[in-house]
Amino acid sequence: MKVNQAEFIISAVGPSQYPEDALPEIALAGRSNVGKSSLINCMISRKNLARTSSQPGKTQTLNYYKINQDLYFVDLPGYGYAKVSKTKREQWGKFIESYLMNRETLRLVMQLVDLRHPPSKDDQAMYEWLRHNDVPVIVIATKADKIPKSRWPKHIKIVRETLGMDKGVQPLMFSSELGLGKDELWGILEQAIAYGEPEPEEANELVIEKVQDKEQEPS
């Protein structure tokens, strides 16, 4: 997908603030500082549309970014923030769970994990919850540029085994610094949102046109 336009839309704190234009949504989940904002900026070839922060737990809302007129990236609050109270963590957990379970336009969750370290218990819990509730998910192993290329297979194996991913399912390695995985990820996202495929009414019109053309062919 060629990104011609990308803009921040809203920091939503509840369903009443979610966009109502029915565009498909791709959510980003992961621990604080795993690189969600950097991934967004890399995918849209912008430096700072999504603000990065060194302060864990700063994102406390659903941040909506509109890409062209085709889809939204929805940045979820990061989990694993030690400095946030237990009560606040529980509130955010219910907030995120409600969105993931009830948002009809959600097409895919990108769960980001840091390739340098084994997935945390929070990472494991999130992945298990998504799989248990049949929420489509792709695991993205970020910060691949931070470790030698020769160690990538070992770290990918650790991610797979720690999360308990199905045989044949691989995390996608990604580096915002190098652009590694960008094109492959766009291909996955385009498939998830059925990018370029005609809407049902348009598809019917195409079928009708083909039938009419066939009828008009000389016998």
UniProtKB/TrEMBL annotation:
Transmembrane regions listed in the UniProt entry: none
Role description: Necessary for normal cell division and for the maintenance of normal septation.
Keyword Zinc: no
Keywords, comma-separated and alphabetical: Cell cycle, Cell division, GTP-binding, Magnesium, Metal-binding, Nucleotide-binding, Septation
Organism: Paenibacillus alginolyticus
Cofactor(s) this protein requires: Mg(2+)
Coiled coil segments of this chain: none
Protein name, as recorded: Probable GTP-binding protein EngB
One of the Pfam families matching this protein, by short name: MMR_HSR1
Family, per entry: Belongs to the TRAFAC class TrmE-Era-EngA-EngB-Septin-like GTPase superfamily. EngB GTPase family.
PROSITE patterns (UniProt xref): G_ENGB
PANTHER family on file: ENGB-TYPE G DOMAIN-CONTAINING PROTEIN (PTHR11649:SF13), MSS1/TRME-RELATED GTP-BINDING PROTEIN (PTHR11649)
HAMAP family, sorted: GTPase_EngB
Native organism taxonomy: Bacteria, Bacillati, Bacillota, Bacilli, Bacillales
Domain of life: Bacteria
Family matches, as InterPro entries: G_ENGB_dom, GTP-bd, GTP-bd_ribosome_bio_YsxC, P-loop_NTPase
Domain EngB-type G: 22-195
